[in-house]
Every structure is written in structure tokens, then in C-alpha cells.
Amino acid sequence: MTFLSPVRSSPVKLILIVVAYTMIPVSLVAAVLLAGRQEPPDSVRLANLAVGKVGLDSATLVFKSDANLLTVEFGPASGDFSEPAGLKRISGTLGADGLFRYEVRLDGLSPSSSIRYRITDNAGSVIVENSFRTARNPGESYSYGVISDGHGASLTVEPPPAVFGRMMEQMAAEDLDLAFHAGDFTIICRGRPGYPDDTLGQIEDKYNAFFEVGMEFTASTPLYAVAGNHEEIGYKPGKTAFEQQFAMPENQGPDSVKFAEEYYSFDNGDTHFIVLCSDCWEDGYKKQVGPKQMEWLEDDLQRVDSEDRSAGRQRWKVVVIHKPLFRNNLVPEIDNRDRLHELFASYGIDVVFQGHAHYYSRHYRDGVYYVTSGGGGGNTLFPPDCGSEAYPGDVTACTSQFIKVDQAPRLMTVSSIQCDGGMETVQGKCEGALLDSFTLTKSG
Ligand SMILES: [Fe+2]
Ligand SMILES: [Fe+2]
Questions:
Q1: Which of 83, 165, 179, 346 is deepest in the core (most CB within 10 A)?
Q2: What is the pLDDT of residue 176?
Q3: What is the predicted pLDDT for the residue at 142?
């Protein structure tokens, strides 16, 4: 894979600086030098690249670039690009930061396949080349990851978030088919000291910082984004920036005009994934999953249930949401969590992955596992803020971690992988040590 940087020092400028020190008239010398030289063309810049919305036969790439015309070629990883399965010459839309923003759908792909793609500029130079995997057919085994609260834009801390970067590296080494980031990608602090006015451009800078650390991962692993409170989805710039950075499936629910990409569902292999938004304000700020989203959720659960009944199968059902329904401080983060739990228990949700609380915890209730995986690189909480009020039987660990799920048709293994050291501990190492693991089985 190759990422080219646009920042190059120009030989002509260097020569001019030297000349200035010799006290020779600059204009005369510069004219002589420039007459015999040609400025090398700037490299095309490509940033914030993420694969998303991966289906059995399609996927979407999102990225931005300073070039307004690029070519995307894609095909099976085993082939070459002499006869690409797909080739798209595309132009971008000018964004708030002066870069062109691209969203490219790749069609005609094969299920359960490794797909190679490359992006080239007008001159035919390859800017980036990488691969990812399309969705699995039912009956196949695969792995996926869950990380949350990377707060990857915490660039007020120098050096940049070391733990988050190491976890991205470790996740990349796990050979995951897909991954979820369960919210709080950045620190957007509307109205707080130092952040008096979150314009779209300012928010964009914070996502840029996330991708500076995470793009090696997001360019090769389809990432399903979950909105956290720090994405400020309730404000127009926050919502716009979030939707632009990632390719999410869209819901067709009653509030789809307002929140089409903030909550959604999709299938991969034998699993039905539901992503919910704990911070979408349907009618002003409320600590709840709003009534329209609840309506969509109930419709989705009913649809899957009736499809499974008529097909005589039983899919795994997994929910991902930012704010936890159950975690160890016993205080509900979501006012209607009891109704949500009732739905999850009655429709047989297997696991709910949560973020927001910056540590790991596992809670079991009425057949549903609630796994908090909030140790993704933000400031890890330690006792007494972590673990002091756990429900009896809960597992809690005050450390940086992420989740790896090994999913087989009838067996699901959930592992929490530890990464020592909080954001402040730049020397810490992410060695992939196993922190906690549990399995679920499904008959039939
Ligand atoms: Fe957070
Ligand atoms: Fe949060």
C-alpha cells in the first residue's frame, strides 16, 4: 500500500534561499534558474479513506483528495488490473476544507471475496492500493472487531494518541472482515472553553486527526461507524461531518430524512447487526433512543424474526450502541433503557456492544450480554470511576482494550484484548493479551 504526501520541499525554493545569503540580486539569479527548470508536479493528496457499506456484491469507498478527477479500479484480489472488474473515473464534490470529497460505490463484486482496489490520478500514478473482504454468505465463519472511544483527535496531547494507534495496528493484525467503532471518534466540544464555535471546518480537522492514526486500518477493513455524544449529531455541522466521513447503510425508518445514516441494520454471514444511536435528538436534547428510532427498531426486529421463522433459521443478533444500557456505575445513561432491554430480551438479542464508559465490562441479564468496550484509547478510567459499583457477577477491567469476535455459524466467541497504558502513557505496549473471553452457542 502506498500513501503519498503532498508536502514536498521544492528544489527551486531551496536554491533561492541559498542565493539570498550570497547577496547576489535574487531576481536576476532566480530568472536564470527558473528558465532552465521546471517545477515538479505536486503529488496528489488522498486522505480520510474508509471502506464501508459492504454487502455480498458491493462496497463503498469514501475519501477526500485535492484532485477533482480520479480513477478507481477494482477486481478480485487474485487477478491483476490489466482487466479490472470495475473501473470508475469519478469527480469529487468540493468540501468545507477545500478538498474534494468522494463516495464511490463498487458493484458487481463476489460474496466472501477479497477485493483489491487502487486509486490513480490523471497521470496514471497510483495514489493508493489496498484490499478488503465482501460480506460472507450464511454458513461461513469470520471475525470482526469492536473498538470505541478512540477519541483519536486528542491532539491537544502530544504525541498524538499512541494507544489508539497501537490498537489500530493490533486490530489490523487480527485479520478482521469488518469492525465497528462504537462512537466518540473525536473530541468535539461545542461551547466548551477552547472550542467556542464548532464550524464544519473545525470538526473536519478532528476527523482528519482520527484518520491520520486510523487510515491504514479503515482503508482495508470495512468500518461501521456508530455515533457517540462527541460526534455532536444534534448539531448540523456534527451530523454532516459524521455522515461524510464514513459509508453507512441507510435506514428507511420514519425519521430517515433526519437520521438516515445514524441508525441502521445489515447482515453478514449468519449475523444480523443493528446499530443504534443513543445521541440522536429527535425533539431537542433527551437522554433516550427517541420514539421514531424505537419504531424503526421494533419494525426491524419483527421483520428479522418473521423472516427467520418462515425460513426455519435463527440468525445471531448483535446490537451496537454508544451509551451503555448496563454498566458498572448503576446509573442509566438512557432513560428508556428498560424498554430497550425488554425488546432485546424478547427478540433474542445475543450481545449488545456499548462504548462511552472508558473501560471494559461484561454484564449478563435475561439472556443478553451487555459488553462495554470503551477502552479504545481515550483517557482510561481507573477506580473509583471504574469498577467500584459493579453489579454482582459482572466482569470489569479498567484498561485500554478492544473486542474481537470469532463468529462461526453456531458458535460465537467474544474476546476482550488488552492494551496497557492510557492515552497519557505513550510508552505502553499493545501486546494483544487476552483480558476476558466468553462463548455463546446456538442450536438448530
Ligand atoms: Fe468517550
Ligand atoms: Fe461518549
A1: 179
A2: 97
A3: 98
How far does the centroid of ligand 1 lie from the alpha carbon of residue 402, in Å? Answer: 14
pTM of the model: 0.87
Are the CB atoms for 412 and 439 separated by under 8 Å? yes
> In the chain, where are the structural domains located?
46-133, 142-441
Cα 105-109-113 angle, rounded to 5 deg? 120
Taking the centre of ligand 2 as the mean of its atom positions, its distance from the CA of residue 126, in whole angstroms, is 38
Domain 142-441 maps to which CATH number in 3.90.550.10, 3.20.20.70, 3.60.21.10, 3.30.110.70?
3.60.21.10
Around ion ligand 2, residues with a beta carbon closer than 5 Å are 184, 228-229, 356
Q: For residue 367, what are the CA distances in angstroms to 76, 108, 351? A: 41, 39, 9
Total number of residues shown for the chain: 444
pLDDT digits (tens, 9 = 90+) for 360-417: 999 999 999 999 999 887 776 766 677 766 788 888 888 888 999 999 999 999 999 9
Closest ligand to C-alpha of residue 228 is 2
Quick one: CA dihedral 28, 30, 31, 36, positive or negative? positive
| Mean predicted confidence (pLDDT) in 221-241 | 92
Residue 385, exposed/middle/buried by CB under 10 A (0-12, 13-18, 19+)? middle
Predicted confidence (pLDDT) per residue in 288-328, tens digit: 999 999 999 999 999 999 999 999 999 999 999 999 999 86
Distance 314 CA to ligand 2 centre (A): 32
- Determine the residue type at 224: Y
CATH code for 46-133? 2.60.40.10
Distance in angstroms (rounded) separating the CA atoms of residues 285 and 355:
20
CA of 301 to the centre of ligand 1 (A): 28
Parallel, antiparallel, or unpaired for β 100-106 and 59-65? antiparallel
Q: Which position has the grid cell 496528489?
A: 44
